[in-house]
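pasting input
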Amino acid sequence: MIPVDELQEPGLNRTMSERLDAVFSALADPTRRAILSMLLEDDMAVTDVAAPFEMSLAAISKHLGILSRAGLISQEQRGRVKWCKLEPDALRDASIWMQSFGQFEAVNLDAFEKFLALEFREDG
Amino acid sequence: MIPVDELQEPGLNRTMSERLDAVFSALADPTRRAILSMLLEDDMAVTDVAAPFEMSLAAISKHLGILSRAGLISQEQRGRVKWCKLEPDALRDASIWMQSFGQFEAVNLDAFEKFLALEFREDG
DNA sequence: GGCATATTCAACCAAACGGTTGAGATTGCC
DNA sequence: GGCAATCTCAACCGTTTGGTTGAATATGCC
């Protein structure tokens, strides 16, 4: 309904439903999930984020815009380099929404790393 | 990349990434999230699911198909009525993925109900 | 059989998505 | 100044999405 490409600043003046729309549709793309995983390790410049992917820089720039408008990352211009930083707080509302449908046991980092390994091995 | 409308049975023979694609894009629509919330209270027939929405029955039927192929609900035909049942387990993998980006405190039911009230009030 | 009920199918439509390319803007450096 | 590097913009393109209608398919009931 709301064009994910044309949303305003992350969070401000948006309903809960609109925020969930933005977060979930941002997460519904494997490239964007991979980007989030990369940013989990370290902040990165746009060009460095784009490096491992087989698509144009402009495409990655768009993906970063979508993640940014969903509030999942923040971007800070420093010189001619734009640094991208993971913002895990935006996942919180969505996570609350999901957890409420069933009680999932607490997750430890081991499970997460096994999970990531699985996703990257199978995803090609 | 994968047409969400043409996916096979929920879960079987799909990679982790494909399952996350299906679950997150299923959750990225307010109508489908509202349907899940309705099914949290009780199992429902397709017609009854469609009743509160201002769109055609066929549209709701499509939404239910998407939720079903994402594994978020199951559908059981009984006579001429198709019953829809919430399947919270499908949210588990996705929830694990999300939780790993930050430690979110445990959620209680009060928070969830306040959350739902918010979403429905603001969503129209 | 005949008819209402429940649900999907098929064809269509406008809009959004995810990608491309080429042309800007800025910024840093010699 | 001149030039490379970083990133976005704008226009385009094929595919997917989310909705609509009208017909079709079962099923239940009298």
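fyi Helices of chain A lie at 16-27, 30-41, 46-50, 57-69, 90-99, 109-123.
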